Type III pantothenate kinase (Bifidobacterium biavatii DSM 23969), 255 residues
Amino acid sequence: MLVAVDIGNTNIVLGFIEGSRIVGTYRISTKAHHTSDEYGLMITQFLGFSHFTPDDVDDVIVCSVVPKVMHSFRASIVKFLGLEPMIVGPGVKTGMNIRIDDPKSLGADCLSDCVGAYAEYGGRVLVADFGTATTFNYVDATGTITCGLITTGIRTAAAALWGETAQLPEVEITRPRSVLATGTKTAMQAGLYYNFLGGIERTIQQFHAEIPEDFTVVATGGLGRVFKDDTDLIDVYDPDLIFKGMEEIYRRNAR
């Protein structure tokens, strides 16, 4: 079994992969300052929840955009699983060409998403990841990442709204019943949701306007499920896309 770990700005997500099947996923808050022992305890508990033991783990691959977490997390893998994890980064074979100004600046999460999308859906694909930040990356027919876009995530924008105002409360990010809101909370939810949805659609339309070939739009990320049913411009929602990409990267670098 392969354990794939996506260390993001908000959550650390673990995926247990047997063959090509994802048999369990679990989330840990990234913001908490956990020790290696705490991470190790949570990992072994999650393995138990999926009816596995540390001895069932053949290898671990880690994709991280939070460097300060890596020391403790890597140490937990070495101590509790007895394995040195593979890290997605420079020197790791991905099968992708990266033709942007600074290829090393492409986040490991975006790279893994693109690898997963190209492996699963083929070329000419726009990958939209809705997380702490919202990213769009385009992969052409040859498996080349040619361009990308980064903007705020809806939760990040919402936190700025209630964090910088004296009387606006924190609200749940959810699809509102109507844009005709009659209270402060529902007005905030409707405003955040439809403003962000409009931005998503306009962004995808602009990609279509500037890329001459037709392409598939694949959305992923925890907040992608909030919008997937409200627009025809997203073709596929794949919550496990990053794990599919990490599995493909691992296969290309299998030790």
Q: What stands out?
A: The chain has two domains: 2-87, 97-246. Residues 184-210 form the longest helix (27 residues). Residues 118 and 149 are 18 Å apart (CA to CA).
